[in-house]
Amino acid sequence: MSVAGKRVLLVIGGGIAAYKSLELIREISRRGGAVRCILTKAGAEFVTPLSVGSLSGDTVYSDLFSLTDEAAMGHIELSRSADLVVVAPATADLMAKMAQGLANDLATTALLATDKRILIAPAMNVRMWEHPATRRNLATLRTDGVSVVGPDEGEMACGEFGFGRMAEPKSIADAIDALLAPGPALLALGNNTATRQGIASVGPLAGKSVLVTSGPTLEPIDPVRFLSNRSSGKQGHALAASAAQLGASVTLVSGPVALPDPPGVTTIHVETAQEMLAAVETALPADLAIFCAAVADWRVAGESSQKLKKSAAAPPTLSLVQNPDILATIAGLKAGRPQLVVGFAAETENVIEYARGKLRRKGCDLIIANDVGSGTGVMGGDENAVHIVSPGSVVSLPRLPKTEIADRLIRLFTDRLVKGPSA
Ligand SMILES: Cc1cc2nc3c(=O)[nH]c(=O)nc-3n(C[C@H](O)[C@H](O)[C@H](O)COP(=O)(O)O)c2cc1C
């Protein structure tokens, strides 16, 4: 076990799931690790310092301004004395404070002061989890290199159903084990040190390679003009980030977008459809390929090497030629076809009917159809509503932040990779 002989600083936040943290302390101890706990003021409303201290066999820290605690172990030392910092349950409030860099109690001060990796196990009501503020905070934390385990889907203490249940103690302990595993447990490929320290190859997609395309392509007319579309890359980038978060080795081939490269993802920047196809072919093999980019169907025949000049005569006529069909090319590979090939269909009418046709024509396994008609705000926006079209069924997801759509889709693709088309 990787946690054996290691020290975990466990921050217990004020959520119903705090009772599961008692079991987490036992599970880490069973695996040979030592646990020291910080209990937030709200956390102490759900579990007592006595039960936490009895199980951890150590002092329970709660107060930033405790003379005795500070004399015995200063808050900075406390934040660095462990090999890993775990927040479970990570409340919406703690996530918000972490994302903002607030330090107004012992837990948040230790989280800001630590030089160790941080793993959070979010737990909250489904509406709190789906709230755009929480989605923003989660995205910020991921960018900062914080690892995330869960939440799970299921029935909640409040009676609602959905995502927000804290991951089970055994799953959290597995993630801790993986993060503390010796050797290069890193996916990190970017230059961001926080990312390199924070994202480890743990999760259900560990050992799998995922290829994602994202953004528009840009097809030159002359050195200064081009044809393109309104794709922002937000959905494709979110898919790449979600897959990396679940432990996959991810290559993102992106057209020109105004987004940062997702942490822990190898990002290849291209402009044209032809460049995108070449980058995709170079990035193979992959277990899962998701073609989310809005590839221009046509490019300009005979791109001018000089800027076209405006003249008194009629404007120039652009003649277009068909671009390569990247989805159909990869879905049709005889050798080296990814196990699961997913295409996206952006339509403005007859969305599902067109998606079914595209599924048949392209030879892919799933089409994710979205309505990008005017008034939907999908192209370039932060939300999406999609239909998952397979040969035998159509499953629709409600309008949600693109990051949440990404998380749900990646979980579904993960199930399909493991269990096959029945999942
Ligand atoms: C009965 C009850 C249950 C709660 N459960 C949760 C929860 O599961 N997740 C959450 O994020 N907040 C929950 N809250 C709200 C938090 O306790 C509150 O935001 C608190 O300020 C969190 O403090 P902390 O993040 O410092 O621990 C709950 C509050 C009450 C009264």
By CATH reckoning, the class of the largest domain would read Alpha Beta
User: How many E strands?
Assistant: 22
Instruction: Give start-end ranges of low-pLDDT stretches.
Output: 183-200
How would you write the strand order of the largest sheet?
13-12-9-14-17-18-20-21
The whole-number mean of residue pLDDT values reads 88
Beta-strand content bin: 15-25%
- Count of the domains: 2
CATH topology of the largest domain, by name, is Rossmann fold
Which hetero ligands occur in this complex?
flavin mononucleotide
- The CATH H-level superfamily of the largest domain is CoaB-like
Class by helix and strand content? alpha/beta
Distance from N terminus to C terminus (CA atoms, Å) equals 31 Å
Description of the molecule:
There is one protein chain. The protein is of the alpha/beta class. It folds into two domains: 7-198, Rossmann fold; 209-303 and 314-419, Rossmann fold. The protein has helices at 18-30, 49-56, 67-72, 75-80, 92-100, 106-113, 126-130, 132-143, 169-179, 193-198, 234-245, 273-283, 326-331, 351-362, 402-419; strands at 7-12, 34-39, 60-61, 84-90, 117-122, 147-148, 152-155, 161-165, 209-214, 219-220, 226-227, 249-254, 265-269, 288-291, 298-300, 320-322, 340-347, 366-371, 383-384, 386-390, 393-396, 400-401. The chain has an eight-stranded mixed beta sheet with strand order 13-12-9-14-17-18-20-21, sandwiched between helices. Strands 3-2-1-4-5-6 form a six-stranded parallel beta sheet, with helices on both faces. A two-stranded antiparallel ribbon has the order 7-8. Helix 11 crosses helix 15. The longest helix has 18 residues, at 402-419. The radius of gyration is 24 Å and the shape is elongated. Flavin mononucleotide binds at residues 13-17, 40, 42-43, 91-94, 123-124, 128.
